[in-house]
Amino acid sequence: MPLYCEVALPVPLDRTFTYLAGGSANSNSTPQVGARVIVPFRNEKLIGVVTQLHSKAPTEFEAKPVETVLDEEPLISAHLLELAAWIAQYYLAPLGEVLRGMLPLTAEVQRTVYYRITDAGRDTLAGSFDSHPGSPLIKRSQSKLSAEDQDLEHKVLTRLADGEQVKLSTLRTATAASLPLLAAMVRKKWIARETSATERDARRMERFAVLIPEARLPTLTANQQAILAELAACGGEISLAALREKGSSPSTLQTLVRRGLIRIDERPASFSLSGLGHVNPNHALNEQQLDALASITTATGFQPFLLHGVTGSGKTAVYLAAMQRILDRGMAAILLVPEIGLTPAAAAQLDATFGNRVALLHSALTPSERSEQWHRIRRGEAPIVVGTRSAIFAPVPNLGLILIDEEHDQSYKQEETPRYNARDVAVMRAKLVDAPVVLGSATPSLESWQNSESGKYKRITMAERVNNRPLPGVEIVDMRQEFQQTGQEQLFSRLLITETQAALDRGEQAVILLNRRGYSFVAMCRACGEKLECQNCAISLTHHKPVDSPEAIASAGQRLECHYCGFRRTVPKRCPKCDSEHLYYLGAGSQQGEERLQAIFPLARIGRMDRDTVRGRYDMERLLARLHSGEINLLVGTQMIAKGHDIHGVTLVGVVGCDHALSMPDFRAAERVFQLMTQVSGRAGRGELPGRVVVQTYHPDHYAILAASTHDYAGFVARELKYRRWMHYPPFGVLANLLIQSKKLEEAAGWSAALGKWFQKTAPEGVRVLGPCAAPIARIKETYRFHMILKAGSRRALNTALRGALAHAEEVGIPRRNLVIDVDALRLM
Prior knowledge:
CATH class of the largest domain: Alpha Beta
Helix content: 25-40%
Strand content: 15-25%
Number of strands: 33
Distance between the termini: 51 Å
């Protein structure tokens, strides 16, 4: 019997940890590979995954026992463990952090944070009382802390002085200490932070009021009669939540329970996908769709497909038909969509087709809901899974097909560790389970296109729209000439205003893309030129007006907001640097666009779709329902409006300010502009009426703009690939972004210089290093950032260089948590 187990923990260390496998206080069983365990780690109790069982005792330390075995059977299958190992190796990510992302089961474990005083804290507290009872811990003249913070430190130590552990919530209530202050005291070693972890029941329960029919009816009040009438109308039972929505009083309900007229039952809560989105009932396939379906469903074993279908060609119908074929064979399928906002529409289509055999996985679900959906999938109750990038880790038994919709979308790239791309992970998972995988898009990424050119992927082309509907005509407006002819800077061109008015007069709908959030994106002082920047990030604050009252700039409730860290402040009346009152605002965001459109089209029913109006779980669905019903006939928004929406009443699309990305320091800028223009243009003319697109640009001769205006994907790709080949950028090379960051500027600069010198001396042949230099956004969330771009001709050379850099960083004392390695980086900011 194995005595020890290797456990992968969610910590920034590239290794597993050895523990005694059996004989814990809470479990006599030996954990299995792929099961979760709770183990002690430093002063915490962490949840890890067992990756290996063995009998080899560690020689450098005494192994601690596993405290709790959470799972009698493995939760992570063998092929998912293999996939996790591949992700950790490919993206140079700690295995424990990869496995944590595979298990969205935080609701099943109760974590509690405690603090206790240390010996150093006792000495500090004793010294402060010796000098003067109640005095601050350090002389104010010698401390960088404010007097208020020093008093808070004293309160914390006093509260912990009896030596007992105190819960975080209790400590903060008693002392009003902030989390940063407690963290600073931990760093001073005055207090210690400890955690515990215990199992808890994550099942969602729902309470119902049930009518007792045999009960005698005494004299009742009007409110009691109303509740009984409601129960009778609902078949004798109704959920308490529904009763509350109807205005029923809890005290009246309890009175009926005491009198024996009703009882309260508790049952597992249901989770329904129906009603979440608009359903297109037409799934009859045309000839090109049938050909695409035949290619996918006749594949035997692992086969990657690139489904290149123009916007409106009916790719979704092919997905549904392919999943039905897979389901008929007794197998399961996963459909990935790029945005949570698109998930309800996809889920509604699947729910209408497959009913309760569909499961939903994305981060907008509550922890309990995610846990419930995950276990439904694992038990085989939901063989059809739809979700965002993390759904690629769904524990689907007998997986037979993976589909990635809008495979080019950047949302599939995780921006936190582990920085995986769900599209590439999907291809690897399909390979491990020997199943076909379909990457669908009207504008495939150049990497996927090149893979289809080289024969790695089989390309399927759908070149025509459903019912032979024409692609929308595109007209380009040169905003340079617009300025010369009108003599003033305009947000919306004369042609766009004319075409929008004409569409509204005909009873049609229009969509306008304005790809910036907020009202204005730069606030500046005319007198001294000072930009109002975030106090935590090296980025200009974005000006926002109150959502429900877009009036004059001087109105109350306005704010300046950082879209990186969330910092907010009120709009100042005077410049904080020179005290001038001449502040002005540059640039127009979607909020200003909405305001101007309302002034131009006062009778239009205008809606806005951006991160400020679509925050909650059902906000997108409510907005799209209003658009489908015709309640909204003019929609303005950011790139969210470009992704996958099928609104048959939209005949006009306006593109405003899309080309600003061409000036970004990013080799993918042209590709992104082409993709965004093509995708948003595809929202027009999807019904019986033809569509039209008006594109406003200051770069009318740029090849990306010209190719998008003629729907010429092949022409754009040919030119863009020529540039990529010359510069050895992906797909003709591999790339990684190595980010060095620290709260201290001198630390970040010193560490980046040390790694830069190492690369100069020992960089492997075939690896080119650009930098180190300050990142384009040099500070985010009070953290200074330097980076290096690594380019290589082969994956092996790049991986060798990065692993060598990590080893050197460990030698010179650069903490692993201060290094971020982004393999196949999509953002170089």
